[in-house]
Amino acid sequence: MSNTLMILAHPVIENSIGNKIISDNFSKADNTEVRHLDKLYPDFNIDVNAEQEALLKADTIIFQFPLFWYNMPAMLKHWIDKVFEYGFAFGTGAQLTGKKVVLSFTIGSPVSSYPNEIIQKIAFPFQGLAEYCKLQYLGEIFCNDINGYSEAAKENATDIANKHAQKLLELINN
Ligand SMILES: Cc1cc2nc3c(=O)[nH]c(=O)nc-3n(C[C@H](O)[C@H](O)[C@H](O)COP(=O)(O)O)c2cc1C
Known about the structure:
Helix content is about 45%, strand content about 20%. The chain is α/β, with parallel strands linked by helices. The protein has a single domain (about 5-174), classed as Flavodoxin domain (Rossmann fold), CATH 3.40.50.360. Strand 1, helix 1 (about 20-30) and strand 2 (about 30-35) form a beta-alpha-beta unit. It is globular. It starts with a strand and ends with a helix. The mean pLDDT is about 95. Bound molecules: flavin mononucleotide. Flavin mononucleotide (FMN) binds near residues 16 and 107.
């Protein structure tokens, strides 16, 4: 049975619609683990060994986050900087070779503001990381209009996030 690890970065999951729905759905599937970085490391003091062990056990790694200024949240960037070190993730003794990676993120703005050209710019650092560490990049799953500015927007966001969660589960089950 293959194991899928979700690396979740969201600073205030209590207020989340999208990432909460997606990660909750994911955690109910078999052979999955969610590591919510902000909960594990509120002081940003990453346990590199624990994170590397979790990665070694996984066949597929999902990076899950809300888009912040066209980018990943600072916690996720910090985690990658610490955990994907020489001798573990790349260089002599690279240990993640062949594992699969999926990028999964939520966007506040509508689809019209996020053509594929922009999505590819957002994905580029992850595609680069995958290539450098010899991981198999499976692609991006993202959704737009995730905001709770009104009751209607919140309801819409809930539906959109549920569909996103479904797509993610289909991808990892194939
Ligand atoms: C600091 C910050 C930066 C953000 N930057 C963007 C952005 O660049 N583009 C965008 O569409 N939404 C942006 N948003 C909106 C979030 O992407 C949106 O609230 C999030 O995806 C919703 O997910 P959640 O329901 O799990 O919190 C930003 C939100 C915050 C708090």
